[in-house]
Amino acid sequence: MLERMAVAADIREDISGEHGYRVGRLSALLAREIGWERDACNALDIAARLHDIGKIGIPEKILLDEKTLRAAEKHFIASHTLVGAEILARSEIPQVRIAEEVARCHHEWWDGTGYPRQLKGLDIPKSARIVALADAFDAMTHGRPYAKAITVEAALDQIAGLRARQFDPELTDHFLALVRRLAATNEDLDAYLGKAARNSPFLRARARIKELLAQGRDSTALSATPPPPGTPLN
User: Fold this and answer.
1) Which of 26, 80, 105, 181 has the fewest CB atoms nearer than 10 Å to its CB?
2) 148, 94 contact by CB (below 8 A)
3) Is 37 helix (H, G, I), strand (E, B) or coil?
4) Domains of the chain with CATH codes
5) Which H or E run contains 10?
């Protein structure tokens, strides 16, 4: 159920569909680095995949805008933290409770200038502080419609520059060391962090959904003769 929700969250913004999986894996590795138990790390891995579930409620024309977002649009996107938390709220499943916490707080900043509640320092749940680092790194190194991808080292330099401003300073130090070690020992860091995605039947289904949506936007596809009833989509 959680993996299906994660796929739904990323379906429009991330072409590969692997962003949530990489963020989850990197978050779990950082949690392990600072001494979390294996079960807690696994729970965070799953929860972190849902950090952007609230983007389901963001209009595509805003979410995929290649131009600099206007103030009103930025405010609209900021609301995805509250939307996501509400989607995940009031669950009795531990992983979903963590996911709600992460969805709500992963854009809070260490110095209190983040959103949605301007939490500061240790008032920000540690799970969200961990995911914030993993999410920012993955977004930087893979890009978005409004920002080009940069190298791993350039991303780490930017994150280091935001230590004690956007990110927990102690966690930042652990994160920088972890990613540099992973990059040194894995020739393809993406493949290592996205391994769970490559093995996911839901992600394979997502690729087909993406293809169908693209066809739906194409007028020639819309006018094409539909397949006979009962034709398998795959």
Assistant:
1) 181
2) no
3) coil
4) 2-202 (1.10.3210.10)
5) helix 2-10
On the question of a cis peptide bond just before residue 116, with omega within 30 degrees of 0, the verdict is yes
Query: Looking at the predicted structure, is the pLDDT value of residue 212 above 70?
Result: yes
How do residues 89-134 score in pLDDT, each as one tens digit? 999 998 899 999 999 999 999 999 999 999 999 999 999 999 999 9
| Through-space distance between the first and last CA atoms of the chain, rounded to whole angstroms | 22
Distance between CA 95 and CA 41 in Å, rounded?
11
The pLDDT value recorded for residue 183 is 97
What percent of the chain is predicted at pLDDT more than 70?
A: 71
Strand partners of residue 20: none
Contacts of 224 (CB under 8 A, 6+ apart): none
3-state secondary structure of 119: coil
